[in-house]
Design brief:
The complex is a heterodimer. By secondary structure, chain A is mainly alpha-helical. In chain A, 40% of the residues lie in helices and 9% in strands. Classes of the chains: A mainly alpha, B alpha/beta.
Chain lengths: 87, 248
C-alpha cells in the first residue's frame, strides 16, 4: 500500500514538472512574440512599392561629396602662336 | 598655347588640384599639306609636359607623329597617351587603355578611344597602330574601372555624333570629352546620365567643368563653360620659352 502511494506521488511530481516546463516555454515564446514583434522588419522603399531596401547599418556608406574641377582641351592641331580671337 | 598654360596656372592657384585632359590632335595639324616639322612636334610635346596634363587621347596627329618617336616627343610630353581600342605600335606610340587616380578626393578613371573612321580617313603612314571598333573595347575597360572609380571620363577622339552614340550605348560613363574638328565650341549635351562636351579647335578655348561627385555615378554639374583665351591672358613665360615664341 505504502509503495503504491509513493509511486503515485512521484508520477504527480513528474506531471507537475512537465507542465511547469511546458508552461515556461509557452510563456517565453508568446511573450517574446507579443512584446518584440517580428525579429526583423525590412523597411519599405521610398517608392512605396514594397520593395525591400538594405538596412542603413549594412548599406555601403555614402562618401562625402567632393567637388572637382576638370579642364579640357583638344584638336589644337599644333597651334603654338597666340591665337587670333574676336574677344 | 602659352596663354593656355597661363590660364591653367591661374585655375590651379585658385582651385588647387584639378584634372587636366586633352582629347587629341595636339602635336600637329593632321590636315596640313606639308611634311611634318619634327622639331616643332617636340616643342609642342615639351609645352604639354610643362602644363602637367593628366592624360592625352591619341588622335590622328599623335599617330602621324608616331613615326618620329625617335626624336623623343613621347618622353617630352610626360603624359600618358590613351587609346583603349588601339592595337600594336607599342614601340612607336606607347599608350594605355586608361588611367585611374584620386583627384580632389574623387576616384577618377579616364579612358581614351580613337575613332577608327577618323583614323582611317587620315593619310597616316604605317605606324604599326590600328584602331579597332570602339564600343567593345570600351565596354571591356569600363568593366574593369567601374569598381574603382566614382567619376568615369571618356576622352574620345572622334565625332560628336560618335560620342552621342557611345554615350547611349555604354553604361557608367559620366562625361565624354570629344576632340575632333569643332571650329566653334559645341553646346554641352546630355544623353541619359552622360554629359558630352567638345571644345573649339586650334587652341582658342579651354573647357572647364566643376562637378560634385557623391559616389559612383552620382555626378552633378555645377559649372560648365568654354573659356576663350583672350589677349588679356598673358603668355606663360616658361611655355613661351619652350615653344621658342620669342624668336618669331
Amino acid at each position: 500500500m505504502g509503495r503504491k502511494v509513493q509511486a503515485s506521488r512521484l508520477r504527480m511530481k513528474l506531471l507537475y514538472l512537465t507542465c511547469a516546463v511546458a508552461s515556461l516555454i509557452l510563456i517565453l515564446t508568446v511573450g517574446c512574440t507579443e512584446n518584440n514583434g517580428p525579429s526583423e522588419v525590412l523597411p519599405v522603399s521610398a517608392n512605396g512599392f514594397g520593395e525591400a531596401v538594405q538596412p542603413a547599418a549594412t548599406a555601403p556608406s555614402t562618401p562625402t561629396p567632393h567637388e572637382i574641377t576638370l579642364l579640357y582641351t583638344g584638336d589644337s592641331r599644333g597651334a603654338t602662336e597666340p591665337v587670333k580671337t574676336c574677344g | 598655347m602659352a596663354r593656355r598654360a597661363s590660364y591653367i596656372k591661374q585655375v590651379r592657384q585658385a582651385e588647387g588640384q584639378i584634372l587636366l585632359l586633352d582629347a587629341g590632335d595636339e602635336l600637329l595639324d593632321p590636315e596640313a599639306n606639308q611634311s611634318i616639322d619634327g622639331k616643332k612636334v617636340v616643342r609642342v610635346a615639351r609645352a604639354l609636359g610643362a602644363m602637367h596634363y593628366d592624360a592625352v587621347a591619341a588622335g590622328e596627329a599623335e599617330l602621324l607623329a608616331a613615326g618620329l618617336s625617335e626624336n623623343g616627343w613621347a618622353e617630352a610630353i610626360q603624359t600618358p597617351i590613351l587609346g583603349a581600342n588601339l592595337q600594336g605600335g607599342d614601340g612607336l606610340l606607347p599608350h594605355l587603355p586608361y588611367i585611374s587616380k584620386v583627384v580632389s578626393g574623387v576616384r577618377v578613371a579616364v579612358i581614351g578611344a580613337l575613332s577608327p573612321e577618323v583614323a582611317s580617313a587620315a593619310a597616316i603612314p604605317d605606324s604599326g597602330t590600328q584602331a579597332d571598333p570602339m564600343s567593345r573595347a570600351l565596354a571591356e575597360q569600363l568593366g574593369q574601372v567601374r569598381p574603382e572609380a566614382d567619376l568615369i571620363v571618356l576622352l574620345l577622339h572622334g565625332t560628336f555624333e560618335e560620342g552621342q552614340a557611345l554615350a547611349a550605348e555604354l553604361e557608367g560613363v559620366d562625361v565624354v570629352i570629344v576632340g575632333h574638328r569643332a571650329l566653334l565650341p559645341r553646346t554641352s549635351t546630355r544623353i541619359g546620365d552622360t554629359l558630352l562636351v567638345q571644345v573649339g579647335s586650334e587652341g582658342k578655348y579651354v573647357g572647364r567643368l566643376k562637378l560634385r561627385v557623391s559616389g559612383p555615378g552620382r555626378v552633378a554639374v555645377l559649372e560648365d563653360e568654354q573659356v576663350l583665351l583672350k589677349p588679356t591672358i598673358p603668355d606663360d613665360p616658361i611655355v613661351a620659352s619652350l615653344l621658342d615664341l620669342g624668336n618669331r
